[in-house]
Design goal:
It is built from 5 helices and 4 strands. It has 2 domains: 83 residues, Multidrug-efflux Transporter Regulator, Chain: A, Domain 2 (Orthogonal Bundle); 34 residues.
Length: 122
């Protein structure tokens, strides 16, 4: 197995479990390419890399990944998700309020379209 290389130069903690990029990809249904993109945009940075450059994820990384997935299910953009995960709670709530207002506007627009379609189909 490759030697661990951490972001901060520290050795891994004894007993710490690491997953290569394919394992969280398989577990979540995401592609390796998607996880690589999340790394590129600093949404989900792997805790470590091997000397060969392979991404290694920890349990803490997995928790962040599942938070990303949960927020993505709320139809937030990746930029909004990053801000939510990297900011204080008040900022998070503000983003969620803005998103709720946007969703409510979309619902109203859909209702108007539905009413027009119902009239046409009469």
């Amino acid at each position: 197995m490759d030697t661990w290389q951490s972001k901060n130069g520290q050795l891994p903690k004894m007993g710490q479990r690491y997953w290569r990029i394919g394992e969280p990809a398989d577990a979540t249904g995401l592609t390796v390419r998607t996880l690589g993109h999340y790394d590129d945009i600093s949404l989900l940075l792997p805790s470590r890399r091997t000397c060969a450059g392979h991404r290694l994820y920890t349990g803490q990384d997995a928790r962040r990944l599942y938070a990303v997935l949960a927020l993505r299910d709320l139809d937030l953009s990746l930029k909004q998700i990053k801000v939510c995960l990297d900011t204080e709670r008040a900022d998070f709530l503000g983003i969620m309020r803005e998103h709720l207002a946007h969703v409510e506007q979309q619902i109203e627009t859909c209702r108007e379209v539905r009413a027009r379609l119902s009239q046409v189909l009469g």
